[in-house]
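Section 3.1: Structural characterization of target chains.
Under the original work plan, the team committed to producing a structural model for every single-chain target entering the pipeline before any wet-lab resources were allocated. The record below documents one such target. The sequence was received from the expression subgroup and is listed exactly as submitted; it comprises 231 residues.
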Amino acid sequence: MTTHWSVVLTAGRSDTTRARAALERLCVTYWPPLYAYVRRRGHSPADAQDLTQEFFARLLEQKWVGDADPAKGRFRTFLLTALSRFLANEWDRVRAQKRGGGQTALSLDTEAAEAYYQAASADSASPDRLYDRQWAMTLLERTLARIRSDFETAGKASDFAVLSPYLVAERGGIPYAELAAALGTTEANARQSVHRLRRQFRELFRQEITDTVADPKDAEEEIRYLLGVLG
C-alpha cells in the first residue's frame, strides 16, 4: 500500500486490520476539507460534525471504497463524490441519530476544522471550490509538517523557524544578510539553505499529490489545478 489510491483499493477488496487502519489514517488526514464542504452547504458546526463523522463511519463499515475506480479521477474527487451522495441520501436519518450514528467514531479535531472554516468564512467560494482549496491547504500543511520533522530530527528546528517564512517569498525580496545573521552563517550558505528548502518542499509536495492520483502522470495537472485554486 504505497499510495492513497492503493490503500483505498486494498481496503475495498479486503477486511484486514492493516487495510482498515490505513484507511482510518487517511480519513483523519483529509477530513477538514470535507467538513468545510458540509459547512458551506449550510449545516451548523454540530450538524457538520455529525454528518462528517457518520460519513466516515459508513465509508469504513459499508465498504463504499469498493466502488472506487483507480482509472477515474483522483482521491480528492472520489471522497467528494461519495460525500455528496451521502448528504443527498442520508441527512434525515443522520439527524435523528446520536453523533457517530451508533458506530465507532474517529478521533477528529473538530475545533481545528471549524477554525479553518471560520478563517475562510469571508471567502464566497462555492462548496466545491472551498473543498478543493481546503484540500490544497491540507497537502501544503502535510508537506510542511514533514519538512519540519526532518529539521527537528536533525536538531535544527530553529533553522526551520527562520527559513520557512521565505518558502513563498520573491527571490529579490529575501534579506539574505539578515538570514545569515539569524542562522549564524554566511550569505552564501543562507542562499543555499533557502534553495535546498524550496527544492525539498517542491519534491515533497509533488510526492503528496502523486499519492492522491490514480496515475503518477496525472500529478502535474493536479499540481497546476490546486495551485490555481490557491491563487
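The chain has a mean pLDDT of 82.
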